[in-house]
Amino acid sequence: MTKACFLDRDGVINEEVNYLHDPAKAVLIPGAAAAINRLHAAGYLAIVVTNQAGVAKGLYEEKDIRAVHDRIAELLAADGAEVDAFFYCPHHPDYTGACGCRKPSPGMLLAAAAQYDIELDKSFLVGDRLSDIEAGRAAGCQAVYLVATGYGAELLAAGMQPDCPVADDLKAAVDDFLSRQEK
User: Using one digit for the tens of pLDDT, what is the confidence trace for 152-182?
Assistant: First the structure.
């Protein structure tokens, strides 16, 4: 079995763009590639789990999601980094009904765990929304982190005090988690 870091996409790896579906608008958050490289060096898979309700809302198609993922992979590769897998949920309860994969449900994490033989209790999640945090907890992750990038910055600016560790960005979250594992 292996362990993983589950990463939300928008606002964690790449800058938040509302309903990102144009690959040309994908821009990495500084330090994201270094964080992913550190994860791999420590023996963790880097698995993206992202809600993509724009499909259900008719704003874009699943091929657009794949094109954005290809672009993110290109940007990461330019810095020597690689995501091990991208999982996405194209549903929205108001448009397609309930599903088990849309965060805060843990479906994407559970699917990744089954596919990659991941020990969830040795894995962690980094996200910028409360739904990310809830999904990580529901899946049984060892730890969950909220980052102060993307929507996380808005939540924190509004005075929210999450009941999980808060990190400046993905790199800081990864550094904190891995340093705790070394103790």
Answer: 999 999 999 999 999 999 999 999 999 999 8
- Give the pLDDT score at 1: 85
CA distances from 163 to 16, 35, 39, 134, 166 (A): 23, 23, 24, 11, 9
Return mean pLDDT, the chain.
97
Spatial separation of the C-alpha atoms in residues 162 and 177, rounded to whole Å: 17
Phi, psi (deg, nearest 5) at residue 80: 75, 20
Contact (Cβ atoms closer than 8 angstroms) between residue 130 and residue 8: no
pTM above 0.70, yes or no: yes
> Which pair of tokens denotes residue 91?
């549903």
State the catalytic residues: 8, 10
Calpha distance 40→33 (Å, rounded): 11
Question: Token digits for 117?
Answer: 């033989």
Sheet holding 85-89, edge to edge: 85-89, 44-51, 3-7, 124-127, 143-147, 166-167
* Residue spans of the chain under pLDDT 50: none
Domains in the chain, CATH or no CATH each: 3-121+132-150+170-182 (3.40.50.1000)
Helix (H, G, I), strand (E, B) or coil at 18: coil
